[in-house]
Design goal:
With about 160 residues, this protein is α/β, with parallel strands linked by helices. The chain has a single domain (about 5-155), classed as Response regulator (Rossmann fold). It has seven helices and five strands; from the N terminus they run ααβαβαβαβαβα. The protein has helices at about 5-15, 20-30, 50-60, 70-75, 95-105, 120-130, 145-155; strands at about 40-45, 65-70, 85-90, 115-120, 135-140. It has a five-stranded parallel sheet with strand order 2-1-3-4-5, with helices on both faces. Strand 3, helix 5 and strand 4 form a beta-alpha-beta unit. Helix 1 (about 5-15) runs antiparallel to helix 2. The longest helix is centred in the middle third of the chain and has 13 residues, at about 50-60. The chain is globular, with a radius of gyration of 15 Å. The model is unreliable at about 1-35 (pLDDT under 50).
């Protein structure tokens, strides 16, 4: 049903002692399709496995995902057609904090929702919000939280 990265993500949560999260993740993945479709997402993420997992989740939610591997690439690719930016905090080269500030400094980037992802999300939340992020999530992304944020920030009603 889902590719091996999904199975690895779910198994990884189980191995790390988070059996409940692993079970919830597998249930939520199967119900992912009820989120709004046609959301254009720019994902700026340097880790290949995170790109694969997050892209698959976002595509299952009906998103059209464009990936940049560095902050520099993300800034070069950013335009007003994106509905949402998923931005890693720790990137090679310029950091996600600098990328967020740069996006916010251009007129078409002032209102785009920016969701941060980091393995150290809790400890850097305030710093990220001050840099222009709307939300910060821990890696690996919690499926239900990601779905809720997508719905909250991309509602087209």
């Amino acid at each position: 049903m889902y590719s091996k990265p999904y199975a690895k993500m779910i198994n990884f949560a189980h191995v790390k002692g988070n059996k409940e999260r692993a079970q919830n993740t597998s249930l939520l993945v199967s119900n992912a399709q009820d989120t709004q479709a046609n959301i254009k997402v720019l994902m700026i993420e340097d880790e290949r496995i995170c790109q694969i997992i997050q892209r698959r989740l976002l595509e299952d939610f009906g998103c059209d995902v464009t990936i940049a591997q560095t902050g520099e690439q993300g800034l070069a690719m950013y335009n007003e057609s994106f509905d949402l930016v998923i931005l890693d905090i720790n990137l090679p080269g310029i950091s996600g904090l600098v990328v967020s500030q740069a996006i916010r400094s251009i007129p078409q980037g002032r209102n785009v929702p920016i969701i941060g992802l980091s393995s150290e999300a809790d400890g850097r939340r305030e710093e990220c919000i001050l840099a222009g992020y709307n939300e910060v999530m821990a890696k690996p992304a919690d499926v239900q939280e990601l779905k809720t944020l997508l719905q909250m920030y991309t509602s087209r009603e």
